[in-house]
Amino acid sequence: MTRRAPQSPGSGHGEDSHEEDAGPGRLSLLDRRLVFVTGKGGVGKTSVATALALLAAEQGRRTLLCEVDAKGDVASYLETGQTRFAEREVLPGLWAMSMDTEASLREYLKLNLRIPVAGRIGPLAKAFDFVATAAPGVREILTIGKFCYEVREGHYDLVVVDAAATGHIIGQLAAPQAINELVRVGLVRSQTGWMLDILSDPALTGLAIVATPEEMPVNETLELAVRVAKETTVELAAVVVNRVLPELFGRSEEAVFDRICVPGALGHLERIAGGDPTPVMEAARLAVTLRRNRAAHLDRLRAELDPAVPVMFLPELFTRTHGLRTTRQVARHLGEELAL
Amino acid sequence: MAAPDSRDPGAADLKGAPTNRAAARRASVKGAPAKSASGDPAGTRPAPAKAASRGRAAPAKTPERAPGKTAEKAQDKGASTSRSGAKTSSERSGSLSGLLASREIVVACGPGGVGKTTTAAAAAASAAAHLGGKVLVLTVDPARRLANALGLKGIGNTERQVPAEAFSEAGVKPMGELWAAMLDTKESWDALVRRHAPDAKTRDQILANPLYKNISGRFVQSHDYIAMERLFEIHSEGLYDLIVVDTPPTRNALDFLDAPDRMADFFSSRLLRWLIVPYRSKLVNLASRPFYQVADRILGSQFLTDIAEFFVLFQSMYDGFVERARAVERLLGDRRTSFVVVSTLEAVPLREAEFFAQALKGRDLHLGAIVLNKVLPAYLRDPAGVAVAERMRDDASSMGTELAAELPGVDPDQVTRVLAEVAGSFLNFRVVAQREAEQRAELASVPDALISVPYFDQDIVDLAGLLHLGAALWDNY
User: Fold this and answer.
1) Tens digits of residue pLDDT in A10-36
2) Closest-approach residue (CA) in chain A for B13
3) In Å, how far is B72's CA from the nearest CA of chain A?
4) Is the pLDDT of residue B411 over 50?
5) CB nearest to B291's CB, from A124, A256, A277
6) Termini Cα distance of chain A
7) Residue B394 counted as domain residue
8) Does A259 contact B414 at a Cβ distance shorter than 8 Å?
């Protein structure tokens, strides 16, 4: 919040939109190195994360997309095979992987301890499972650690994480601090320092919350925004409002619509159109009401969110299926919102 | 086709006054659940008998009902089952009302963001309104909104009764009582420790252990377990006739089902004992074990000591704890418990929901119903309507001019734009409705009841709203 610059000196020219958007508020999503994407279940978190990664790759950035809760949705949005822990280039410039904490542990041990892991990972993994189950943060630190490691090593220009849903993201992002509190000495402790450095630097790391303009997603977004500021060191880089319904018509046209919807006029229309227009009119009524309710939630989001946080809008896509084609559409809209 | 199709979720008059509707529903279901509760313990099974009895029961009851409407509805319903296809008519005989009348625990589960919490609350509210007895909705969602809707200031870890005024404001005279409680993970864990700790000293040590604090407060899986544990606790107190539970949002829909088992396994495992032994006997040289060599270097010995202390302390509660976890597991598998999977017809949630339904079957748990939320109106798929919309889109300008001629003072261009817009919008939504209808038809795991709930265009802000949704759930199948 301290970053919210008052009217910047040169902003006398007023509403010059792009400059305002990219202005002193926050760094654009694609200009960071590590972006976590979260959101309440059902809002399209994975779809937005995938589209963001695709967009970055299309913009020429070497991009790694990682699915934390390996449900295989990334694979279906990109129409690529199952993603695994080992990164794989699925489209030009776009690598994909899915998190697997055991594999991450193995990689970690290999890199840091030079332990002959292969022979011992069996029982070790089982024991690890216990420790991880008992000690919160251990599993999360391996997850977060993997991303921070990729950023530190500079293997990619951008790492996009399809992170945990709003309910669990704090636990993930705050894991290095939690470990710092719990673990006083040892390698893990010494490792949390540099991770915190990466996570706390807004030039490197940002969080994007995906919401839909509905009551609960907006509530959760606002609550999460507060918690992120209070309990983590990660900057909220953007809120992406997904599935915004198109505006059918303005006020004066709505008056015309109302005139058409009376029985007499409908009768004329039925004759002219050669069939009963009632379902078409009812569907329009539904679309208008839905949009209006959603607009109220959007207003609330705007009013209660820190004005420094950019809000981006993605339209509802009336598509037949969810595949690469749809993902490309989402990416295109994201690109427009990012003024690319 | 012109007449509104009253059992089709979409075609139904959504804006109809909730109270009348709820009242009509109440009248219409009075007989059925009572019957299934006594005569038919399974409540939801035998298909033909039920359909028949519904048809018969309706006319007999007509006199005490609101103007003959429900009789029609009952007949409609019969028609709908046979019309919606051979596969569905004979197999899906259940309804949520039957389920709620015949079970003691109904667990609402499914992917996130599909309206689980609201569905659970609506089902519980309807059960309290129509069935009588004490009904509890146990939610994990701390949403103020739900508390508001129930007329409560807030929902806490202890159960509170929804005030009678909330029902009277909704125009409903409830047959029973509605109670609500929220799951507070930390508080529930503390209660569990207090119950099982062998003595005050151990209890205090556990409560003060840094690991315990972390686990009980933040730890995701602990949430899963404690939800089921608390359910067991409340159920065994026997105060409620029906408990409707809303499950925590899990990374994996199965986590909370596995939680009791995992907990029991965890605390009874040999591996755990093996882990703790060194800390019990100082004679054992830690360094001799490769695991400790590694763990020590990674985590530091202090942390390992914390972990071990925690486990040693917890071991003292072992018997009580494991026994308890097993009992929770049995309760979930008991025939008094049924599961309702909630989803929308979108591809991703639906895939998860189907997976969940399969998993329930695989575990011999009772899948009572699948509730499909936010289903778009069926008129979007009506071919005649589609044809009209297509013509309107293609000939908007000539139709607009012609129609404007009939509407004095209206700008023809505006009429044209409006026609083009509404036609385009209809065809857009139609694509989605079509996709959803196909998804619905492909549903592989079909329980006794497959319930479609229409897309409500208003947010639910009070008990009347919940009861309205409840009415859509109630007898729909």
Assistant:
1) 333 333 344 344 445 688 999 999 999
2) A282
3) 23
4) yes
5) A124
6) 26
7) yes
8) no
pLDDT at residue A128, as a whole number: 63
- Chain B residues within 8 A of A252 when measuring between CB atoms: 414
Q: Of B19-23, B183-187, B228-232, B409-413, which range is least confident?
A: B19-23
CB B459 within 8 A of CB B10: no
**How would residue A190 be classed by pLDDT, with cut points 50, 70 and 90?**
confident
Distance of CA A113 to the CA centre of its chain: 34
A318 touches chain B (CB under 8 A): yes
**What does the pLDDT look like over B6-18, one tens digit per residue?**
334 333 333 333 3
Q: Which two tokens stand for residue B37?
A: 């509760």
Across chain B, mean pLDDT equals 74
Q: Which residues of B25-50 are buried (b: 16+ CB within 10 A; e: fewer)?
A: bbbbbbbbbebbbeebeebbeebeeb
Q: Is A244:B347 a contact under the CB 8 Å cutoff?
A: no
Contact B457/A113, CB-based, under 8 Å? no
Q: Count the Cβ atoms, other than its own, within 10 Å of residue B239.
A: 12
- Of A111-125, B86-100, B300-314, B435-449, the range with the highest mean pLDDT is B435-449
Residue of chain B whose Cα is closest to the Cα of A39: B113
Q: List pLDDT tens digits, range B389-408.
A: 999 999 999 999 999 999 99
- Asked, for residue B411, whether it belongs to a domain, the answer is yes
**Residues in chain B within 8 Å Cβ distance of A69:** 251-252
Q: Closest Cα partner for B215 from B247, B251, B179, B189?
A: B189
Query: B interface mutation test: which of A43, A318, A321 has the most B CBs within 10 A?
Result: A318
Assigned domain for B88 exists: no
| H or E element in which residue B244 lies | strand B242-246
Give the residue from A103, A25, A98, A38 showing the smallest Cα distance to A68.
A98
DSSP 3-state helix, strand, coil percentages of chain A (rounded to 5)?
Answer: 55, 15, 30
For residues B36-65, average pLDDT: 35
Residue with tokens 């339904």: B357
Question: Which residue in A214, A267, A322, A285 sits closest to B426, CA to CA?
Answer: A285
pLDDT score, position B66: 37
Domains, chain A, in order of start with CATH, read 11-247+307-337 (3.40.50.300)
**pLDDT score at B205:** 87
Report the distance separating Cα A277 and Cα A265, nearest Å.
Answer: 11
**Orientation of helix A187-200 relative to helix A138-153, angle to 10°:** 60
Measure CB to CB from residue A284 to each of B145, B215, B426 and give the nearest one.
B426
Q: What is the pLDDT of residues B329-341, one digit of tens each?
A: 889 898 899 999 9
Which range marks the domain in which residue B428 is found? 380-437
Instruction: Assign B289 a pLDDT band (cuts: 50, 70, 90).
Output: low
Contact B80, B7 (CB under 8 A): yes
- For residue B408, give the chain A residue with the closest CA: A259
Alpha-carbon gap: B101 to the closest alpha carbon of chain A (Å): 30
What gap in Å lies between CA A252 and CA A242, rounded to an integer? 28
Answer whether B248's CB lies under 8 Å from B224's CB: yes
pLDDT surpassing 90 at residue B78: no
Q: What pLDDT is recorded for position B94?
A: 63
Asked whether residue B10 is domain-assigned, the answer is: no
Helix (H) or strand (E) holding A145: helix A138-153
- What's the domain count of chain B? 1
Q: Which of residues 241-260 of A touch B (CB under 8 A)?
A: 246, 248-249, 252-253, 256-257, 259-260
Q: Please tell me the predicted confidence (pLDDT) of residue A240.
A: 98
